[in-house]
Amino acid sequence: MENEDQPRLRSVVSYVKRGGRMTVGQQRAWDELWPEVGRTVGELPAGKLDFTEWFGREAPVLIEIGSGMGETTSQLAAAAPELNYVAVEVYDPGLGQLMLRAEKLGVENLRLLHGDAVILLTEHVEPDSLHGVRLFFPDPWPKKKHHKRRIVSPSFAALVASRLAPGGTFHLATDWENYAEQMLEVCSAEPALKNRYSDEPGGWAPRPEWRPVTKFEQRADVEGRVSHDLIFEKR
């Protein structure tokens, strides 16, 4: 049984609340675009978020956790107009840049949430409701003493699984080998999830052609690291 208070009491989170000066354009996005397309997790009313009302239409909801500077997120949302695409991020300039990119692409099916994805999923997302959850290149916390900060854990996998609709997908990607192995182990152990590519070598999913190459993948390639994708499905 979920402890509804647990996320707010967590002493260890998977992210660092980074500062960073915003550009003039990013600040304009916050001033002009955020009131329509963005909300802050900590300021949401108690209860479940009505995505249909927020988007002004009923459509499958997909949540991407950690949209970074928004280059791939804006493209993914633009390429899937049939989805109500939700990006969750803690970095203010990143959200500003994502709004600018989405504006340039004419994206209308994207909404932004500023804050902790665990609190969002726990307190504001209906069980069995999501079309998908994406977690692309989360902070790897490579030092062993920091592994406890990694977002992918048994409790997180169970939380994501509980929010997915039957058949919904949890798509993960990382360029850190031992984190990929941890993701595979944790998600494979979650009873509500099954690996769509369990018959493939290692259980890894083929890299989807539709996912743009991120700066993290480019850097990983230069540094000799291999990126791995995993796609799990709600039973």
Structure description:
- The chain is an alpha/beta fold and about 240 residues long.
- Helices cover about 35% and strands about 20% of the residues.
- The chain has helices at about 5-10, 25-30, 35, 50-55, 70-80, 90-105, 115-125, 155-165, 175-190, 215-220; strands spanning about 40, 60-65, 85-90, 110-115, 130-135, 165-175, 195, 230-235.
- It has an 8-stranded mixed beta sheet with strand order 1-4-3-2-5-6-8-7, with helices on both faces.
- Helix 2 crosses helix 6 and helix 5 (about 70-80) packs parallel to helix 6.
- Mean pLDDT is about 90; it is low at about 1-10.
* Strand order across the largest sheet: 1-4-3-2-5-6-8-7
Report low-confidence residues grouped into runs of 5 or more.
1-10
Largest sheet: number of strands, sense, barrel closure: 8 strands, mixed
Shape: globular
Total DSSP helices: 10
Output mean pLDDT: 92
Question: What is the CA-atom radius of gyration, in angstroms?
Answer: 17 Å
Proportion of strand residues? 15-25%
Distance between the termini: 19 Å
SSE ordering: HHHEHEHEHEHEHEHEHE
Helix fraction, binned, reads: 25-40%
Number of strands: 8
Derived structural class: alpha/beta
